[in-house]
Design goal:
- The structure is a homodimer of 282-residue chains.
- Chain A is α/β, with parallel strands linked by helices.
- Chain A has two domains: 173 residues, HUPs (Rossmann fold), CATH 3.40.50.620; 91 residues, Pantoate-beta-alanine ligase, C-terminal domain (Pantoate--beta-alanine Ligase, Chain: A,domain 2, 2-Layer Sandwich).
- The first copy, chain A, has eleven helices and ten strands.
- In chain A, the strands form two sheets. In chain A, strands 1-4-3-2-6-7 form a six-stranded parallel sheet, sandwiched between helices. A three-stranded antiparallel sheet of chain A has the order 8-9-10.
- In chain A, helix 3 links the parallel strand 3 and strand 4.
- The longest helix of chain A is centred in the middle third of the chain and has 16 residues.
- The radius of gyration of chain A is 19 Å and the shape is globular.
- At the A-B interface, helix 1, strand 5, helix 7 and helix 8 of A face helix 1, strand 5, helix 7 and helix 8 of B.
- Strand 5 of chain A pairs antiparallel with strand 5 of chain B, so a sheet runs across the interface.
Chain lengths: 282, 282
């Protein structure tokens, strides 16, 4: 696996791949890789000639008081995992290479899609995401870029950005990968102590419970949210950030689940904020 | 000359050119072409295999009360001029194709470089420029894009954006083209009546006068601005928007012209706002 040493080297190498007629698959990550990331890599490996994985804990998508400093990092372990997946190139730039002194160019997607859910809880988060992803697209020149459905709002924002700013590439969504007991895989799960880890199962349980009620005919969004709230409340340590149900196409409000909907929640256990979601169709 | 009918067709065609190993030169314009635009086209013709010219009067870079509605347009005349320059493809998209309903993705360069000069006079202008230029880059995939030094601040903003967002292309600056009497070519010159057209010569005269004083040893920015102000004031109809001298690299403030400087001015004659500038080195 090639280590692309810096922005210029990476862009030059990717340009050469394109000139050689190869399709590029990009998997942007913040590292500390788990099976969720690896499923993105495997999908890229299947669909593209060349697979590039980026590892970059992007400071500008973290707010004040968030976990930028403590976000888990283990580059050599990540590197070994990517070697096993036959990744062609790893791009792990320095912050100073991505954001040199005086840096002041940003990409922002406005409207409901970034105002709700994590956009409401984490002001500026999606501006940081849209900016770094734009930079990664321009550096790595992917034909396809792979994102996990775990960060449902993120992939929606990126899809809208790609469509509206006309990036010449396709976004591929890859399903959530879960632990055997149902907890969605996340680099942040390592923050949880044993008791929190046990209680964190309520996220997936709440989503399953709500989905079951939809399947049994419940359409009322307020009642479905209340069902989820009760499941979460069964965990004494859980502090709800949001529990919401929105139109899965654009995060538009809905009172009845009469079209494809995104059920999404964010819950804190101590300092650890976990998210999970499920798409439901009727 | 091929007419690229819509965003998707244009992007597809440009992708094919790239796959065929051809370099693409893009000349983004708002149409109503004059010799200034054609000098960009000629430069692109010399430097690239394939030349694409875009014509798009970009609504989001015009403020309320500005001249978006009345901006001069003559597509068939433009088309004939571009045929003569052996342009390969013309891209003249509809507004609804560039900004479909619900459009909400923007690119913005912050800091001094957009806060001064036209950025101060025209709030939101450079956000509109950065956004449309990003879209044109993503659609037309240029190896080189050609911009006129006439819009000095615009080309600085775009160079910063390209550098910071890592667009895989090079910006080429092309010198100002002037009428025989010195007035900088501009599509907006057609707005001037005969008397205004005569008085508009003060822009270039003021810049020449200031440059002469620099050559003779004057370094004081305040005094140089005063020299320009006096020349402009000799025109009874001229209303000064700004007369400024900044660091040519980043629009940083300067009290002495002790490094490369941009002397720039914007002056209104009736409803017509004209800009002009000159780079001076010491």
């Amino acid at each position: 696996m090639l280590i692309l040493d810096g922005v210029k080297v990476a862009q030059q190498w990717c340009l050469e791949q394109k000139r050689a007629g190869k399709s590029i698959g990009l998997v942007p990550t913040m590292g500390y890789l788990h099976q969720g990331h690896l499923s993105l890599v495997q999908e890229a490996r299947q669909q593209c000639d060349v697979v590039v994985v980026s590892i970059f804990v992007n400071p500008i998508q973290f707010g004040v008081g968030e976990d930028f400093e403590t976000y888990p990092r283990d580059l050599s372990r990540d590197q070994a995992l990517l070697e096993e997946e036959a990744v062609d190139a790893l791009f792990a730039p320095l912050i100073s290479d991505m954001y040199p002194p005086g840096y002041n160019s940003f990409v922002e997607v406005g409207g409901e899609i970034t105002a709700k859910l994590c956009g409401a809880s984490r002001p500026g988060h999606f501006k940081g995401v849209a900016t770094v992803v734009s930079k990664l697209f321009n550096i790595c020149l992917p034909d396809k870029a792979f994102f996990g459905q775990k960060d449902a709002q993120q992939v929606m924002v990126i899809e809208k950005m790609v469509r509206e700013l006309n990036f010449p590439l396709q976004i591929v969504r890859v399903p959530i990968v879960r632990e055997e007991d149902g907890l969605a895989k996340s680099s942040r799960n390592v923050y949880l102590d044993e008791e929190q880890r046990r209680q964190a199962l309520v996220l997936n349980q709440a989503l399953r419970e709500a989905e079951m009620h939809v399947q049994q005919g419940e359409r009322n969004v307020a009642r479905l949210k209340e069902i989820m709230r009760k499941v979460i409340a069964s965990s004494p340590q859980a502090v709800i950030d949001y529990i919401d149900i929105y139109d899965a196409a654009d995060l538009g409000d809905m009172e009845q689940v009469d079209r494809k909907a995104l059920m999404a929640l964010a819950v804190k256990f101590g300092n650890t904020r976990l998210i999970d979601n499920r798409l439901v169709e009727v």
